[in-house]
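Hypothesis: this fold can be encoded by more than one sequence.
Test: take the structure tokens below, design a sequence, compare later.
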């Protein structure tokens, strides 16, 4: 991939697909960069996460597609791996029973299961590190999708779907309220 940006991005897409964005602290002169605001399919002058990482050839786009596809698969696998590790590391299980009023003045016992984990334990520290990695990867995937490049968007969606297919088949059906990317 090219390690420099072409200052003339107007050859990439028709002008109606861009919104001018000036870098902070710079005037509206030649330092202006065009940002796609609609989906487009191109392999020329496509920025990928970092300013010096630009796709300029079909081969580079194919390589980026494969890398993004596997990054999205990794994200789905990481979510499932964290869930499995969490289930294995739950160390204290407590059952609490409490009386609750039942029908016709009877008293029923309701039991609650409380599962805990120690804060300063290796499993919790590992979960913390994996959570940080998961958040960073999810934001990378979001930023890649926000390039509006159709090829890269397809790579994110196809990789996430493939990762879900391969990694989630033995997962219990539970809604994850801590999900960051959906």
């Amino acid at each position: 991939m090219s390690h420099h940006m072409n200052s003339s991005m107007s050859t990439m897409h028709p002008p109606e697909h861009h919104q001018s964005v000036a870098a902070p602290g710079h005037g509206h002169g030649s330092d202006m960069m065009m940002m796609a605001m609609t989906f487009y399919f191109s392999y020329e002058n496509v920025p990928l996460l970092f300013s010096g990482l630009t796709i300029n050839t079909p081969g580079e786009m194919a390589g980026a597609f494969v890398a993004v596809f596997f990054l999205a698969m990794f994200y789905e696998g990481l979510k499932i791996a964290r869930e499995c590790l969490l289930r294995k590391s739950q160390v204290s299980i407590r059952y609490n029973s409490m009386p609750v009023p039942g029908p016709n003045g009877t008293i029923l016992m309701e039991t609650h299961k409380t599962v805990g984990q120690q804060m300063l334990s290796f499993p919790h520290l590992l979960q913390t590190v994996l959570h940080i990695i998961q958040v960073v990867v999810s934001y990378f995937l979001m930023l890649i999708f926000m390039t509006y490049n159709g090829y890269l968007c397809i790579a994110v969606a196809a990789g996430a779907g493939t990762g879900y297919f391969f990694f989630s088949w033995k997962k219990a059906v539970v809604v994850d309220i801590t999900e960051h990317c959906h």
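The beta strands are 18-21, 33-36, 46-48, 50-55, 92-101, 107-116. Residues 1-30 have pLDDT under 50 and may be disordered.
Hypothesis status: open.
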